Structure formats: structure tokens, C-alpha cells
């Protein structure tokens, strides 16, 4: 073999030998260079019980140490309570959870910084701090009082989920529109609801359409002057669930300039998951009934049941590829500028395989690169799109 051909052959062989390990590390570099934003994490619920999240823990899906290890730069912390918190309690609960986030940031030793505007976001990112933002999950937490909306915005609330599963007196939820339908006194937004959306636009509070009913969804898009956020929902065509968006809704969010942040919950990405969970619970009926009888708080009871049945749930976790399918579906239908991540970490009992907690987030970049997305497109999905919508919702 001529020397020149031998040299070329050797060079080609060297490329083939070294290409695989280089590609294996490429996704981590892409992840590290991107601004990674997660629009929904329920970890404050753990902090409310007294757990110290400023140190590494073995519970749940996240803490400040693991958020750093997972490369998260921008984290929206969910402020939530169920519908059992009525007038006089829900707003107080919201403030208590914001106080808890403040205490966590104070214990962080400078690792986290509360962010309320683009200038503070830029400052936190420049210093390598976690940009901690507040998302209030459930319009019932303002107790039908626009002045409470103003107060929460002043404390740092940067999105409000208009409803949780329960409707308010001014907006209907997906759960109520599906289950109660025509028996509801109204569907969509009332005049107060439209005024609240306009007020949020002026205050710089993103309108979050996760959990809202379809009527509310379309009413909001007819009113808002700012891009909307869908903080933790997935694709209805892949997994028909009232919490997921239908094709026309996906297209409408793109037209509005908003962003849909895909929820990682197994039940929202795998259409077979919830049926399998019901089978597991039927097979453990005595345990389920016992926990429900002995636990006064129904949400606490469900958390305990899920914890006890976790080994059984492990066997029915969907593959990571199915989560990526949801991301890709939105990217292809709406464009790569309109999809992001809304994990629901620490608020769900089951995640896809290869996504055990927040430290597994780089695997998303790996899978997207495998599917042919460019570094820039991956960076948009990981957080760039969320940052764009945040900036676009600056106060008027």
C-alpha cells in the first residue's frame, strides 16, 4: 500500500476509533454551555416540612446541591396549595412558601439568588448563581382579590397558574371542564378573569396555562398582549390527558410567541401508565385503604401510598425516548422556539427511565443531539426559549 494511502487510512481509522467517546462527551458540553431552565419544581413542599434543601439529600428529586450538579441555571420554584385552602388561608400559604424559599436562599451561601427581572437574571447567571424564581400554582391563592395579585408580584411572583385542578370564581380548570362540563355556572374567563390577565401583563407576571380548561385557554389568548407560558404540560396526541395540550392549542401558543414546557410525569407522557398504576393499587387495596383511613390529609395520603408502592411503580416507568417524543412533537408542530422543560420534580411519583432526579437532565441534550438537533436548537429547548418569554413579559 502506498505510503500516502496508508497515512490516510490510518487517519480515518483514528477518527473512527476516537469519534464514539468524543460524541459521548459532546452532549455534556452542550448542556453545560446552555442556560438550563426548569419552569416547575415542587421541592418547596419538602422545605415546608423542615427539610434542609441547602445540603445534599437522598430524598425526592432535587436540592440545591443536585440542582448544581444537574446544571440548572434557572429554577422556578412552585408555590402551591390544594383547594382545601380557602379564603383566608390560600394567600397566607402562598406567603409562607415564599418565606420558606427566602430562608433557603439565605442558607445557600450565595449559591442562589431571588430573581424578579431580567437585570437580576443576568446578574445571577454572570455570577454562576442559581436564578430562583417564584411561580404560584393556582389562581385561588389570590382569593379573588387583584390587590393580592399585586402583593405577590411585588414579592417576586413571575408566573401565576390561573387554576390548579380546582376552578376559581373567574377561571375554569381542565379538571372541572372535563368532569362537570355544562353543570358549571360558567366556563372560561369571567370579566374579573380577563381583568386579572390584563393586570398580569402590566405587572410582568407570566400567564401560565397549565391546568386550565380549554375554554379558559382560548379566552386567555384572546385577551393577553404578552407571550404565555405553559409551565408543565405535555402533548395530548401522544398521551390523551386533560393536562396535555391538543394540536390546535400547541399551534396557538406558537402564534402567541409563548413556550410549552414539557412535564416529565410518567402519567402525562405514557398513555398506558395510569392504567398500570390502577392495577398495582387494586393489587394492594388493603394497604391503600389503610393509609387513606389513617391519614387525614388526602394529598399526604396519596404521597404515602406512592412512596410505599414505589418499588412496584419502578417496573412500569416509560423510556426516556417517550419524553423526548413529546419535546420533538412540539418542536416539529410549533417550531423549536416554543418548547422547554417543566419537570414537575418533587411533585410526581414517577419519572421516565434515565431521569431519576435533576442530575440526569444532561440526558435530554444527549437524546436531542442523537435525533439531529443542533447545539443551538438544544440550547433553546433547555432554557433559551423560557428566558426569551420571561424577558418578553417585562412590566409595562
Task: Provide structural commentary.
The protein is an alpha/beta fold and 396 residues long. It folds into 2 domains: 32-270 and 318-392, TIM Barrel; 283-317, no CATH class. The protein is built from 18 helices and 9 strands. It has helices spanning 3-33, 44-47, 64-69, 90-107, 118-126, 146-155, 174-179, 191-203, 214-223, 247-256, 266-269, 273-283, 285-294, 298-308, 310-314, 320-334, 362-370, 375-392; strands at residues 37-41, 74-80, 112-114, 130-137, 157-161, 206-208, 229-230, 259-262, 339-341. The strands form 2 sheets. Strands 1, 2, 3, 4, 5 and 6 form a 6-stranded parallel β-sheet that branches. It has a 3-stranded parallel β-sheet with strand order 7-8-9. β7 (229-230), α10 and β8 (259-262) form a beta-alpha-beta unit. α6 runs parallel beside α8, α13 runs antiparallel to α14 (298-308) and α17 (362-370) packs across α18 (375-392). The longest helix has 31 residues, at 3-33. The chain is globular and about 55 Å long. The termini are far apart. The model is unreliable at 3-22 (pLDDT under 50).
